[in-house]
Amino acid sequence: MDKKPLVYFLCTGNSCRSQIADGFLNVLGGDRYEVRSAGLEAHGLNPRAVETMKEAGIDISSQTSEVIDPEILNRADYVITLCGHADEHCPVITHQNVVKWHWGFDDPAKATGTEDEIAAKFREVRDSIRDRISQFVETGA
């Protein structure tokens, strides 16, 4: 069996956006891709991200918040940063055939307002990530 291309999603804390992307790609393209996610730091899995994904029918509750692993980073086929901070501070990638993309999304964990307004921001970011993952699965780009 051929090795699946490794997609490594990165953000600052590996608590929301990269976890959501990890969950969506595992569901939408996990048969074609090996999926991992990490952060510059490990902030723990955000409970609102778990709840928001549950609303979309995807359980990410068993995912863990990880710090970027240089070994995984340097064997990845795709490194995709989901926030500007991670894009600017991503460790040096020595693997020359890696495709590195930046897909910037707002940090829903920084949303303020009522519970409904915060939940709406999480859903907005979740849906934007889902749409981008769907495009990636369909086109490879």
Please provide a written account of the structure.
The chain is α/β, with parallel strands linked by helices. The chain has a single domain, classed as Rossmann fold (3-Layer(aba) Sandwich), CATH 3.40.50.2300. It is built from 5 helices and 4 strands; from the N terminus they run βαβααβαβα. It has a 4-stranded parallel beta sheet. The two termini are 23 Å apart. 35% of the residues are buried.
Layout: helices, strands, pairs:
Layout: E1 6-11, H1 17-29, E2 34-39, H2 47-55, H3 70-73, E3 78-81, H4 84-89, E4 99-102, H5 115-139
Parallel strand pairs: 1-2, 1-3, 3-4
Helix pairs in contact: 1-5, 2-5
Keywords, separated by commas or semicolons:
globular, 4-stranded parallel sheet, single chain, alpha/beta, 141 residues, Rossmann fold, 14% strand
